[in-house]
Amino acid sequence: MNAKRFLDLADFTREEIVELLALAQRLQDRPEPRALAGKILGLVFFNPSLRTLASFQAGMARLGGTSFVITPGHGTWQLEHRLGVPMNATAAEHVREGIPVLASFCDALGIRAFADGKDLAYDLAETNFNAMASLVDKPLINMESAMNHPCQSLADWKTLDDLAVAPRSKFVLSWVTHPRALPLAVPASTLHMAAMRGHEVVVLRPEGYAMPPQLLAKARAAAAASGGSVRETDDRAEALAGAQVLYAKEWGSTTYYGSAEKDADLRAKLPDWQVREDWFARARPDCRFMHCLPVRRNVAVADEILDGPRSVVLKEAHNRLVAQMAVLHRLLSATP
Amino acid sequence: MNAKRFLDLADFTREEIVELLALAQRLQDRPEPRALAGKILGLVFFNPSLRTLASFQAGMARLGGTSFVITPGHGTWQLEHRLGVPMNATAAEHVREGIPVLASFCDALGIRAFADGKDLAYDLAETNFNAMASLVDKPLINMESAMNHPCQSLADWKTLDDLAVAPRSKFVLSWVTHPRALPLAVPASTLHMAAMRGHEVVVLRPEGYAMPPQLLAKARAAAAASGGSVRETDDRAEALAGAQVLYAKEWGSTTYYGSAEKDADLRAKLPDWQVREDWFARARPDCRFMHCLPVRRNVAVADEILDGPRSVVLKEAHNRLVAQMAVLHRLLSATP
Amino acid sequence: MNAKRFLDLADFTREEIVELLALAQRLQDRPEPRALAGKILGLVFFNPSLRTLASFQAGMARLGGTSFVITPGHGTWQLEHRLGVPMNATAAEHVREGIPVLASFCDALGIRAFADGKDLAYDLAETNFNAMASLVDKPLINMESAMNHPCQSLADWKTLDDLAVAPRSKFVLSWVTHPRALPLAVPASTLHMAAMRGHEVVVLRPEGYAMPPQLLAKARAAAAASGGSVRETDDRAEALAGAQVLYAKEWGSTTYYGSAEKDADLRAKLPDWQVREDWFARARPDCRFMHCLPVRRNVAVADEILDGPRSVVLKEAHNRLVAQMAVLHRLLSATP
Question: Are residues C32 and C144 in the same domain?
């Protein structure tokens, strides 16, 4: 494992992830309340958060360290990220100053910066996040970027382990609807995680919401190494037949990326993309329901699912704390 | 004392409260800076806070523990609390996910959720708070709900102890004016505390602002056990005659609960309900002035009172820290 | 050093500042991770912050203490500071309650409260900050007031030490442009620091932006004691000839203090007041560029400067942490 950065599961081998999750389990079984004594984690949130905000603070505290939170635009200046522009609008500071300054105050930095959502190639290249990452000379954690959410995926991998979900089983990543076009970070990251874990991965989505080819190619390379597979379909019945896991996620149209209007037109015809119990008719009886949260009840997912026995969403969320403690320990502890 | 929850003084016997305040005093006299080492307190604020926000963080730190703060809508998604609704408005997450997730990250949770202020029966039933409380399997603290603010009342009880205010003395809880209709949590909680402490409690308020019968009945039951009494009046001179304590508080019309307009019409005729020195003409010479803060100077209370010798509002506020440390110790410490 | 307050470099002798910076260096060289164990710092921000917010939290943590943050108006009530007014507008609490209450929860308090920006004499008298300071009976830190930012200046002094900038060398404090009229706190504080350190201080600014005579007189008194000097000019070429340091800062018109409109008219004619490499034509070849941050790139300062070899802005920012740790240690540690 790269001793300095946790940015993308794809930066690690399958074995390294397995080791990291073993560390997570060890820290659960035998707490190390002084492992990170004296260490300071800086947390920068360009976008809202609940789980990430709470679990990173709690995780540092459980390991004896401390953290501080910066939310640009809330009690802190807005930060500009474009290069070369005259800063005569609302942003009072540039990330080229703000980020290295914050890094200089702490021992590790976490950054959350969602996709711009205007240009797909720009976001796929992780332009904004990488520009900031290049300014940080401390251990760095991706707390969700344009196309990645490795902390969520690490936690989800652990959840699948905890539930003894077999690597070869069928894992359906399904688009669900939402009032707005949401970023691709979680579906992209989930796709890669499931492929890397060796699943038969099926991306189920309506026309207009196909995964970008680059992400599919990346996931297929991981699947090739792990013995898994990756395919896309819009046939819900076929996709869910024999499924062991249904992972639901909202995301914006990739065909009309950046056009809120065309996206809205498209999804106006897709209210049926809300997970209900009848989706599971041909799935395995013990098929699990996963979602990274937050979730819009009775829009993306019906109450009957979230309150029913298939749902493991609270377990996934709790594993955010468990998995991230291993990441923090690996990045910051003097002893392995 | 229920080892797991601090939600309402009425859940405890008088003796249990006395013991809890003895613990508060002990922690003042002999600090225990490692008592809660490794423990994490989650603090969820659906409404603004100053004393509660600062004192719970400071209290955990003084006992060696740590805390994190979540303020839905400020850097965190808004949380929906209604059941069964399609979540297609602004709230991105439901309390049914958000609250148990946060509880799973910490060792104890504090929640502040003010009254909806629309339907009195709904608020009297603590519908919103109880719905959240039912989702928490960790020690839980009520940091002010629709009809209760037990941390304030515990601190106020200690303030009365510190000042050696005799249990049988006359305690006047008086309505004072405010630009808006405020919730009933503090007056309800204060009424119960004073009755439970054994005072001759007089609720002084104009027509339209009577205490709900349920709250009076609950307080009278406490008074019966403690040797105190509870009555209401709109006669200021009579109420304050012989008073040992004047506790001022703003609250909305109970006759027109939920109607900002009718409440405003009513209070437009009541500008005289601002505490001034002349209110104390027939009170005991050493009559104390109490208020939970925040207070609108020269609206609810004149400067001459807040800056004068009767006021103990800063002592009350400091006792928030003192009293809450005892609550945290009781809920989280392995040793009594 | 006054054991209780860090409000203005002018409250200290040159020798006391040198000692304080020696302590800062000692804490860098030989960390004291338990020096402030059990101590609590309250941080009150009436205005936005990035460096101050992060560095004070990090500094307390590095010394083993903890901190809490209050940002009036963000999750906390707005606080009124005027005396004697009926509080029937938006502020729900007065600083006369809020500040002493917060002070009673912690071991030291930091307050940031920018200038009102309406009346120069009012701001020069530090009316708002002093009103709050008079309510605090704990160690107090000025985290930027109307006319002072001693933490920034202490860090800048250390930066000049680190770079071995000779006391007698020429130090140019230059006005630069900005979309809005900014406060005088940093230029006032920098002027005093440079004079106190013994520099040949030249304030370079266009007509309409002269330093208030009171601030010049105060700085000249410091210069007289240190062997330095202080003068003002609007002649850029002359000012920068032989300069060893160019410290750029934005501030509002002092001639038209409080008039955003007249200030805007004035600065519309001054777009040339943006630091570029050609400003340094006659400066010393190793002339340094300083700025307290945040800075508007390509408005106040060109990219070529901030990304070039002259800039020491990140070093200045990091020294905020280093310098403030010495302040915290001095105010809160039992041992020197």
Answer: yes
**C-alpha torsion sign, points C112, C114, C116, C119:** positive
Residue from B238, B201, B185, B160 nearest B52 by CA: B185
Residue A325 near residue A62, CB atoms below 8 Å = yes
CB within 8 Å: C42 and B54 = yes
C292 contacts chain B (CB < 8 A): no
Q: Is C98 on the interface with B (CB under 8 A)?
A: yes
Which pLDDT value is given to residue A1?
42
Q: What is the pLDDT along chain A (336 residues), one digit of tens a residue?
A: 445 899 999 999 999 999 999 999 999 999 999 999 999 999 999 999 999 999 999 999 999 999 999 999 888 889 999 999 999 999 999 999 999 999 999 999 999 999 999 999 999 999 999 999 999 999 999 999 999 999 999 999 999 999 999 999 999 999 999 999 999 999 999 999 999 999 999 999 999 999 999 999 999 999 999 999 999 999 999 999 999 999 999 999 999 999 999 999 999 999 999 999 999 999 999 999 999 999 999 999 999 999 999 999 999 999 999 999 999 999 999 877
Helix (H, G, I), strand (E, B) or coil at A212: coil
- C9 and C138 in a common domain: yes
The whole-number pLDDT of residue A73 equals 86
What stretches of B1-39 adopt beta strand conformation (E)? Answer: 5-6
Give the phi and the psi of residue A212 in degrees, each rounded to 5: -55, 135
Nearest to B61 among C66, C75, C80 (CB): C66
Cβ separation A70–C57 shorter than 8 A: no
B217: contact with A, CB 8 A cutoff: no
Nearest-Cα distance to chain C for A75, in Å, is 5
Structural domain harbouring B48: 5-149+320-332
At B151-180, the pLDDT tens digits run: 999 999 999 999 999 999 999 999 999 999
Residue C154 lies in a domain: no
Q: Which spans in C179-294 are helix H?
A: 185-196, 213-226, 236-240, 260-268
Distances in whole angstroms, Cα of residue C230 to Cα of each of A186, C148, C203: 58, 18, 8
**pLDDT tops 90 at residue B1:** no
Could you tell me how many residues make up chain B?
Answer: 336
**What domain count does chain C have?**
2
Six token digits for residue C29: 């060289």
**Cβ of B299 under 8 Å from any chain C Cβ?**
yes
C-alpha span between B190 and B152 (Å, rounded): 8
Residues of chain C with Cβ-Cβ distance to A37 below 8 Å are: 33
Long-range contacts of B309-316 (CB under 8 A, 24+ apart): B310/B246, B310/B280, B312/B159, B312/B163, B312/B288, B313/B289, B313/C97, B314/C97, B314/C100, B314/C101, B314/C104, B315/B159, B315/B162, B315/B163, B316/B155, B316/B156, B316/B159, B316/B290, B316/B291, B316/B292
Distance CA A300, CA B92 (A): 11
User: Is C32 within the bounds of a domain?
Assistant: yes
Chain B residues closer than 8 Å to A250 by CB: none
Three-state DSSP class for C162? helix
pTM for the predicted model, two decimal places: 0.97
**Do B200 and B143 sit in the same domain of this protein?**
no
CATH number at C285 reads 3.40.50.1370
Tens-place pLDDT, residues C16-29: 999 999 999 999 99
* A 27-46 residues inside an 8 A Cβ radius of C: 37-38, 40, 42
User: Does the residue B155 lie in any domain?
Assistant: no
- Give me the residue from C87, C93, C101 closest to B314, CB to CB: C101
Chain A contact set for C48 (CB, 8 A): 75-77, 92
Q: Over the range A311-335, which residues count as b (16 or more CB within 10 Å of their CB) and which as e?
A: bbbbbbbbbbbbbbbbbbbbbbeee
Neighbours of chain A (3+ CB pairs under 8 A): B, C
